[in-house]
Amino acid sequence: MSFKKYQPILEVVFLSILVYLLHKLVFFLNENNPKFQSFHFPIEVVYGFFFVCSLLIILILIKVKKINIDNVGYTFLLVTCIKMGISYALLSPILHSGNPNLRTEKIDFFIIFALFLTIETIVTARILNNKQ
């Protein structure tokens, strides 16, 4: 088993943990701020969801690269669109809740989504650049 083949997964794990710790630090520093309390979904749940999605996307891309490297980009677009649809379904209860921190929670959700999309895009670009 070649570890170089699964290096993108290690990159996703490392970057996800780094981003989570930084985000958790922001929450810790604003612990008494009411805007950061009583979210519909705890930050760990949102990070867990996007982490699992990122791992699945990267695993799918590694498998597609074995079959045909020319389809990696198209596959990335397809699975990202699917993830976006699932993310909207997950965000839907937040949009329809009566939570007074609605704006803060939506922004937080979008930031996490954008961070993981950035991580996935960087790792996908590295997969495409390694055409061995």
Account of the 3D structure:
With 132 residues, this protein is an all-alpha fold. The chain has four helices and no strands. The protein has helices at residues 7-29, 43-67, 72-95, 102-129. The longest helix is centred in the C-terminal third of the chain and has 28 residues, at 102-129. The radius of gyration is 17 Å and the shape is elongated. It starts with 6 loop residues before the first helix and ends with a helix.
Compact summary:
The protein is mostly helical and 132 residues long. It has four helices and no strands. It has helices at residues 7-29, 43-67, 72-95, 102-129.
The level of helicity is over 70%
What's the mean pLDDT score?
83
Distance between the termini: 16 Å
Order of helices and strands: HHHH
Task: Tell me the β content.
Answer: under 5%
Shape: elongated
Overall radius of gyration: 17 Å
Topology:
Elements: H1 7-29, H2 43-67, H3 72-95, H4 102-129
Tags for this entry?
mainly alpha; elongated; 132 residues
